[in-house]
Specification:
By secondary structure, the chain is α+β, with helices and mostly antiparallel strands. Helices cover 42% and strands 12% of the residues. It contains 14 helices and 15 strands. The longest helix is centred in the first third of the chain and has 67 residues.
């Protein structure tokens, strides 16, 4: 065999040699399995993290909801305290309004922070509390009084025919319009906003609120422009051309009318600029709600009202309850907004007088405030002060130290998850029950509960003195429940009616009217 043949034979053996094939197959399988295992492990870890995150988020949500329940419980104690003071007027001179505020104003944080100066007893008590506490994770709850904000739903028009119920509505330092799920806003005059009657509309309340919102919008735009330029925020309310240019040529009057068109019942709002307002909605492709706003975020649906403008005024507005002004807590911006006549020197003297650390002064009411602003600071005369306060009341504002609208911020945390609830809670005043009397006395000579006979003894009318005796028989010689006859007691009843006091306001349990989730 020649050398050439041997080389060819050896080459053939090498080519057909199958040794090591199994090793290659095993190594290939290992590589494939390794890739599959890595992918499977990665997917498993991702799904586990998702499950853990969902569990953490669920626990954080439970913590936040627990914080909201805690806030409602604290406001419930506040409501019961208000009712107790209303029923026992003699204690109102002893218990200061800020004493009741302490029931809800103190923030709650868990785990409870302990200072470095805490002694052993305090530390052991805190440890025992945390061992028995059911909450896992962290929780922070804060309650803010937002009663001072302007309610945009007060732009709803009130029918004139309902003004007859003015004297029947509950009045007092804490009364005010409240949000109803069926009809929207109920104002102090007892009318239901937006329900337009055939007899026409009463623009008084809505007109005053419209003016206040226009003034607020102009003022905030002017302040923003002044802060950007480093200038003075002063100037007249009518001088808003510069601020309008900075905010896309916003016309405050037209923007407020667009809000008024949005919250009023369809076809109930008439104005000279109504055509232009409707054209704005048509161009933006937005259909007005024609009902009260349920959230302040609905301002973003008003055409022409951009986000920059909304950010300026959203902290001054609300859609729940009424506007409560407490001069013992009012800020400098709020004071300037209410009394634009006050100069910087006046405001500096006001806050120095009110917040003096050695001898702080608490304004007990409008008369006390008027004495200081009129007699001491001499900002204006008493007549102008009274007119200004009256215009604020017509705009839906009320004066008092105790709020009825609150914002609750409850933030729950667990591991890496955070869940925040922002809830608006109101403590509404109970409406006075309307007494329904029978048209004619029944067989027993009774007009019905809470009713008496008129002077002619022919018709049944509501008893003007519900706490006094009730006449159940038209016969003047028949004794009444207290043993006296109507004829003998008529003069005494009249005297009692003159001196009768307003019935105490009854506050209902706090209820959540809006919840925002972050």
């Amino acid at each position: 065999m020649s050398s050439k043949e041997r080389k060819q034979k050896q080459r053939f053996k090498i080519i057909n040699n199958e040794k090591g094939v199994a090793l290659l197959m095993v190594m290939g399988a290992i590589v494939i399995l390794t890739a599959l295992i890595v992918e499977f492990s990665y997917e498993t870890k991702v799904h586990m993290l998702r499950v853990y995150n969902a569990q953490d988020r669920a626990q954080a949500k439970l913590n936040a909801e627990s914080g909201l329940q805690l806030a409602i419980a604290r406001l419930k104690l506040y409501q019961l305290s208000l009712n107790y003071l209303e029923k026992n007027k003699q204690y109102q001179k002893i218990v200061k309004p800020e004493a009741l505020d302490s029931l809800w104003s103190t923030p709650f944080i868990y785990p409870i922070p302990l200072g470095k100066d805490a002694n052993i007893v305090q530390r052991s008590a805190l440890e025992d509390f945390q061992k028995t506490f059911m909450l896992s994770g962290r929780l922070s709850v804060s309650i803010q009084n937002v009663s001072h904000r302007l309610n945009v739903n007060l732009l709803r028009l009130t029918p004139k025919k309902e003004k007859a119920d003015e004297k029947k509505s509950p009045v007092g330092p804490f009364s005010g319009p409240e949000v109803s799920e069926e009809v929207g806003v109920k104002s102090n005059d007892g009318g239901e906003g937006g329900e337009t009657g055939e007899e026409g509309e009463d623009p008084g309340l809505a007109g005053n609120m419209e003016k206040k919102l226009v003034d607020l919008l102009k003022k905030r735009m002017r302040e923003k422009k002044a802060s950007a330029e480093g200038g003075d925020a002063g100037g007249s309310d009518n001088d808003s051309s510069g601020s309008e240019q900075d905010f896309g040529k916003v016309r405050p009057e037209l923007m407020v009318k667009a809000i008024k068109y949005y919250v009023n019942k369809e076809n109930s709002y008439e104005d000279n600029d109504k055509g232009e307002v409707e054209r704005m909605y048509a161009q933006a492709g937005i259909h007005a709600k024609f009902a009260p706003m349920s959230s302040i975020s609905e301002l973003h649906l008003i055409p022409g009202l951009n986000d920059k403008v909304i950010d300026l005024i959203k902290d001054d507005l609300t859609v729940h309850g009424s506007t409560t002004i407490d001069f013992n807590r009012i800020t400098q911006k709020g004071l300037k907004f209410i009394f634009p006549e006050m100069t910087e020197e006046h405001m500096a003297d006001f806050f120095t007088y009110r917040d003096n650390p050695e001898k702080p002064h608490r304004f007990s009411g409008n008369d006390d405030l008027a004495k200081y602003l009129v007699d001491v600071l001499q900002v204006f005369d008493r007549k102008k002060f009274d007119e200004h306060i009256k215009s604020l009341e017509k705009a839906g504002a009320k004066f008092g130290a105790n709020g009825t609208v609150f914002r609750v911020i409850s933030a729950g945390q667990y591991e890496r998850a955070t869940y925040t609830l922002t809830a608006y809670v109101i403590v509404p005043a109970k409406e006075e029950e309307k007494v329904k009397c029978l048209e004619t006395p029944d067989l027993m000579g009774s007009c019905g509960k809470g009713c008496i006979f008129d002077q002619e003894k022919t018709k049944c009318i509501p008893n003007p003195n519900p706490t006094g005796p009730t006449n159940l028989n038209p016969d003047p010689n028949v004794p009444r429940e207290d043993g006296t006859t109507p004829a003998a007691a008529s003069s005494g009843d009249k005297e009692k009616n003159k001196k009768k006091e307003k019935p105490p306001i009854t506050y209902l349990a706090p209820r959540v009217v809006e919840i925002q989730v972050n």
